[in-house]
Protein 1
Amino acid sequence: MVNRSLKNIPFRPQNTFLAICFLTYWDKHLLHIPFKETVAGSNPSGGTRVKSTTTTCVRTNRWSQICYSIFMNLQFKGYFFILYSSPITRFLGRIVSLGDNAMAITFWPFIIIRPDLKTNPVLDELIRHETIHIRQQLELLLIGSWILYGFEYFYALYIKKLDKRQAYYYTALEQEAHRNAMNPNYLNERKPYAVLWYLFNKKHLSRTAIGDLIEQDFS
Ligand SMILES: [Zn+2]
């Protein structure tokens, strides 16, 4: 029942309404701040070039563009948001050492996805993968998921001597997300704390050139 009511419900009309309210306020109160602009001109009486000062109204600036872009690319999904933004994906991808080619990243309450993937056939699978992370993060109260990830990642790197890519795949959080993202019913069937099973049931994961998952037993 809980799963059904919390199913991914697109909330776009409400977001658009919020965006309009916010932008109306923003435009009226924040963007109509006059500023002095110095323009080079000529002095008709003396004939020498002087600088005249005019007062201008800015209607758009960098921050309004950023806010506009965030509001228009935000979707509310019941217990988390999906935000399509490439600079934020890139920025966070670098922080967690996924590099510039990170496709999506999840920090509850946000799933941040590169906007160019909106029309990509992998989008459903990608959102399912990240929604699994949202559930894990909520169950482990955020901090628990970072501790678990860090602990398993470094264990894989230094004790199991795996490379960085394999260490990432080795963590229970990624094992659960990668091995179930193809199953469209997984989020409905999933039991709470399902991630704990993957602490002791690891598979060697890799991807083919076209992105299909290969699962193999650890030798
Ligand atoms: Zn993941």
Note: The radius of gyration is 24 Å.
Protein 2
Amino acid sequence: MTAGHRVSVASELFDFYIAELLRRAGLDAVAYTSNRLRFDDGRAVAEFPHAGGCGRCGNCKGARVDEQRRDGYTVVMVGDGYSDRCGAKAADHVVARGDLLEWCRGGGIAVQSFEGFAGLARWMHAASPNGGSPRSAPEC
Ligand SMILES: [Zn+2]
């Protein structure tokens, strides 16, 4: 958490993959939720400890957004794909690219586009100096 922000990752991927991606990026300290894969007698067993929310997602990002909002945070949802839709519907602000961007535009969800994470980080820093909500479009 920096400057009153809480950053977390919600993923529909498995835990070992997300942990490795965060480690490689030097972001081991970032909290995340994901689906889980464990091995039992040589068999892979998928687990969905964060199921719930809409009842269709393995890790419903809408439910993750609701948790953050209950904790008093204004939530900026950043995403790009199908599994981000529940989060986009629940978030205070949506920043998207790819399929999610088009889906939001088609469904009347206010959305701002982004291209790369470096530009997104600059926008987040500039738009919310007091931990408040973003006020302008990202320049990514
Ligand atoms: Zn969902």
Note: The pocket of zinc ion is lined by residues 53-54, 56-57, 60, 62, 86 (CB under 6 Å).
Protein 3
Amino acid sequence: MSDEIKARFPGEVDEVHPAPFITIPPQPTEKKPGQLTEAQVTQFFQEGYVAVNDFFDTKTELDPCRDAISVMVDQLADKLYDAGKIEDKYEDYGLFQRLTQLEKEHAGSNILLFKSQKMPKAFCDVWSNDRMLNVMEQLLGPDIAGHPVWNLRTKTPKSDAVSIPWHQDSAYFSNESYDHMIVTAWVPFLDAIPGNGCMQVVKNGHRKGKVANHTCCRGPTWYVMLEEEEMEKSLDVDMKKDLETCPIDYGGFLLFHNLTPHRSLENMSNDIRWSCDFRWQSPSEHWGFYGLGEGVPMRSAKDPSMKADFEKFFSFDRKEQWQKRYYRQEDANDPFDTTITGPWIGRWEIVNHNKHTEAFKPFIVTTSRRTTSYIYDIVVYTVSKNHSAYSACTVCDTSSYTTILLLLSHHFLSTYLPELLLPRASMPQTKWRPRWR
Ligand SMILES: O=C(O)CCC(=O)C(=O)O
């Protein structure tokens, strides 16, 4: 028998948890507005996705989101103009063109808007929409919370920065997200079609209950990637049969979850494909969000009068925490910096280095029970910076670092641990020095 030890990254696991993803929970006995049909609920659990059409009243529920996006674009134009980054604010352009014009004059404008997100009230209203929560009740049970990860997608035409490859959402979350469902409603603010970058899913990709091995990062971006070959091998899907393209008209949404492999197509149109992905889960489950704040409870079986407390939810500055923990400070303080980095970068093999992977600064939590895995993140990250020494990962045995943890203080760990490990792992000389020193 071979003694070969396989190098593993923190995101890689053998564990599988199919039950929560394929088992329909007890359905509400009461008929409620907006509820999915039995066939839709069945499809969601069997195939890992379902398209829901004609759900929103576009005039009263989605047009306010469009208006809120226009305000955000306007604010961005002002900011760029005031800083002398652009010479024209392109005020005559509408919602589906203006950001493209800003992007032409100041490359990265679409990333700045993506990065600067503050959730406007119109979006909160969609997120906590009563009919939407009736849908979530069918998928998650009677206790529902909004998950803290949401994204306004600024998919400008033919832009590499917003070209999102195959992935499962759990690849971005911590391992504690692997065993329970986090539902996404992907809501487009126009008719999303293949030509303007609608979503694709790989149906049945959730049925094994597994997070497949991802790599990082696609081209010049911060996105993790899931190779089709890897999906076929570890998720038992057949890309020829299981790939589904999901056009969604304005007023509808696409439902999928954290184990559904998905991506969006290129936007080959002349319009910006605006969309927002909202998430929900049971409040009793782990958020999988690296301790960066909790979700917002929205519905409770015990307290039928519960309303989402957005004031409390937004009082915690996730962005500030995020930047403190994972960014080099010089990037975090520049309002026009288009670098995006985060904990997911330390979770997978970095096969393509770029400014986003370079900016990643691993974060250590000495007080949490997950500490050992954070240390492991750093070791793997450190070693993977030098590909010729990649096999040195095999010496990184998580349990042996538990002892170090007990003996060393947080300061000592974050300052000296990588240096101590490098010679031990017989790393060849490298010019790279840890960023967090
Ligand atoms: O909107 C997109 O282009 C991709 C969305 C996505 O990957 C997600 O919602 O997880």
Note: The mean pLDDT is 86.
Protein 4
Amino acid sequence: MSKKLLIVNGSPRKNGVDAAIAKLIAERVKEHGFETEIVNICEMKIGGCRACMACKKTGRCAQDDDMTQMYEKIRSSDMLILASPIYFGAETGQMKCFIDRFYAMVKMQDGQRLVNFGNVSKASILLTCGAPDGGMTYGGILARLTKTVKSMGVPDLSGTIIAGVQPDQVAENDNVKDYLDSLDFQLGF
Ligand SMILES: Cc1cc2nc3c(=O)[nH]c(=O)nc-3n(C[C@H](O)[C@H](O)[C@H](O)COP(=O)(O)O)c2cc1C
């Protein structure tokens, strides 16, 4: 059975930089038998966590929105890539809402934090930004998001910041090429 890569795009721009890089990733991993699904969460209804704590009692989020299908998509994936442009020094609001909803996949039992993130054993964070020096400026955001995904029990993590690139430039950009190579390495190709 082919392995599954889920790319969650937090950009509202369907033909933006993140979308262009996501396509390149999908083409690359296909050569190695990976099946990729790219999901544009900005086209979905995913509300913020309401802190109602229902999930702590039932194991399920009480909100019946598009996150319901995303829980299934995450859990059935071997690798997860979270892609987001930087908006005012952070990931987009839509991506933040999506990540906050991971809370329903965490439960506390006898003082232990138990996470049900399904099959995901590898993850990567892809950030893009307009500022050419964004690789330096937003390193802290990359570190924070990497730590968040690590806290979901994912052992094998990578990430990058692609700065100052337009959608039609991504295929020729050296940092994008390096990132694609690093994903090959992470996936053991
Ligand atoms: C509302 C908004 C806020 C932004 N804030 C920043 C920022 O703080 N720093 C930065 O370097 N670029 C910023 N940008 C630029 C985007 O991060 C950059 O163009 C990104 O690559 C767009 O990705 P996309 O085409 O996938 O949407 C901002 C863009 C928008 C629309």
Note: The chain has a mean pLDDT of 97.
